[in-house]
Amino acid sequence: MLAQKLNPVQYAETVQEWAAGTALGALGTRFLIAGEGEARAELSFRKEHAPLTGRFHIGVIMTFAEETASSAGMWEFNPTRISRPELIPLTFQVDFHQIANTNRGKLVADARIVHRGRTILVVDTQVRDDTGKLIATMTTTQMVPRGADSNPPERGDSGQSD
């Protein structure tokens, strides 16, 4: 019996469950969608996210952007509720540019797979504050997991019947 392929909202909920009790969950990221080539997440400002400047620490913003990009890539190889860590793409290159910062509200990250090859994925991520102001951009290169299906799941088909 094949595991049911999840739609992007269901998959984001599943990633959120998997993240509990891990470094992924400790940051406070809330995954909204993950799948079909994209992901969206949000992160509310907390005092512990800031250095002495009182604004988001650059490492927090980078981690948040990378987590979002990774969740987009994860669905490509395991769009189910079954935890398969060996099918998580490995991020091995990051190009990050911080443009602005904030000390209030929340950040929203939108990630989109812009290339899916036989051995790598390239994911572009933009991080904005809750007013829509661009905070950072990130391009990540992820290694396709060994043994992963070389054909991506069909997009737009959540595996559910109408």
- Identify the CATH homologous superfamily: Hotdog Thioesterase
- Please identify the structural class as seen in this structure: alpha+beta
Number of domain units: 1
Quaternary class: single chain
Q: Tell me the CATH architecture.
A: Roll
The helicity comes to 10-25%
CATH fold naming: Thiol Ester Dehydrase, Chain A
What is the arithmetic mean of pLDDT? 91
Q: What order do the helices and strands come in, and which of them pair?
A:
Layout: H1 8-19, H2 23-26, E1 30-35, E2 38-44, H3 58-77, E3 90-98, E4 106-116, E5 120-129, E6 134-143
Antiparallel strand pairs: 1-2, 2-4, 3-6, 4-5, 5-6
How does this model look, in words?
The chain is an alpha+beta fold and about 160 residues long. The chain has a single domain, classed as Hotdog Thioesterase (Thiol Ester Dehydrase, Chain A), CATH 3.10.129. Helix content is about 20%, strand content about 35%. The chain has three helices and six strands; from the N terminus they run ααββαββββ. Strands 1-2-4-5-6-3 form a six-stranded antiparallel β-sheet. It is globular and about 50 Å long.
From the structure above, extract its key features.
single chain; 162 residues; alpha+beta; Thiol Ester Dehydrase, Chain A; 3 helices; 6 strands; 22% helix; 33% strand; disordered C terminus
In short:
The protein is α+β, with helices and mostly antiparallel strands. The protein has three helices and six strands, in the order H-H-E-E-H-E-E-E-E.
